[in-house]
Amino acid sequence: MSLRRLDRVREVDPTSNTMTCEAGVVLIKAQEAAAAAGRLFPLSLGAEGSCTIGGNLSTNAGGTGALAYGVARELVLGLEVVLADGRILNNLRKLKKDNTGYDLRHLFIGAEGTLGIITAAVLKLFPRPRSVETAFIGVPSPYAALALLNLAEERAGGMVTSFELIPRIALEFAVKHASMCRDPLAGSHAWYVLLELSSQARDGLRVLMEEILAAGVERALVEDATIAASIEQTNTFWFLRHHIADTQKYEGGSIKHDV
Questions:
Q1: For residues 113 and 123, what is the distance between their CA atoms, to the nearest angstrom?
Q2: Which of 13, 84, 93, 102 has its CB 3.0 to 4.6 Å from that of 78, i.e. a possible disulfide?
Q3: What is the pLDDT of residues 130-144, one digit of tens each?
Q4: Which secondary-structure segment (H or E) carries 66?
């Protein structure tokens, strides 16, 4: 079933930090509508230029912002759903503090359309960060990556907004088959981490990133790292990350996983 014609952003409400979108709204359009109002809709994934809000909710999409903001389920306050008998469940609530009755939205999110068809949703928005720092890091193992995550959260708390673990083979496929992808580091490493910090403060975030990486080097968690020097370089890091899945097909069959 295609809901592409249900493609309106019905409302962006900065006062309540919410946005009401129809199911056919493409994810990047929702992100842009939030940005135009000075807000952030943090759901982000490689297919954001084509996937829709309805699809994101019916599959409970995760995305690269899940660490800080949660998966799709946690970004929804209310739903409009068409049930199997044609009745419409109108539950487009904006309230964050709402303890009235059953919370039916969670039945439909992640159900892949089996209990009803989501036609619109009230989504949570957040203040746009004033500063962002992104680092591409070579690490020796997933164990070291987990220790680095704990270190980053100890030093930066809620400012750790993304932490993506990438194996060497995935990076090699992306560099080989996506023309704009380049290896960000000079040497080869078994594993990589894409770490992003975001803050409402305009200053001090880069120093914090440098301190985290320095402590990681001291603890043998970090083998090499580079911090993006510009928005363009940040976008290059994320371009590589988002092209990991689609470049695998050129190497034959693969088992997809997202841990």
A1: 19
A2: 93
A3: 999 999 999 999 999
A4: helix 66-69
Q: Are strands 9-13 and 18-22 parallel, antiparallel or unpaired?
A: antiparallel
This model's pTM is above 0.85: yes
The Cβ of residue 204 has, within 10 Å, a number of other Cβ atoms equal to 11
Distance CA 151, CA 143 (A): 12
DSSP, residue by residue, 97-119:
S--SS--THHHHTTSTTSS-EEE
Tokens found for residue 216 = 């990681």
State which amino acid sits at residue 110: G
pLDDT tens for 68-95 read 999 999 999 999 999 999 999 999 999 8
Question: How far is residue 209 from each of residues 16, 69, 158, 159, 188, measured CA to CA in Å?
Answer: 32, 20, 13, 10, 22
Which pLDDT belongs to residue 258? 63
Q: Which helix (H) or strand (E) holds 77?
A: strand 76-82
3-state secondary structure 199-259: ECCCCCHHHHHHHHHHHHHHCCCCCEEEECCCHHHHHHHHHHHHCHHHHHHHHCCCCCCCC
- pLDDT number for residue 259: 57
Residue appearing with tokens 């209310």: 78
Segment 164-191, tens digit of pLDDT: 999 999 999 999 998 888 999 999 999 9
Task: At 54, give phi and psi (nearest 5°).
Answer: -60, -45
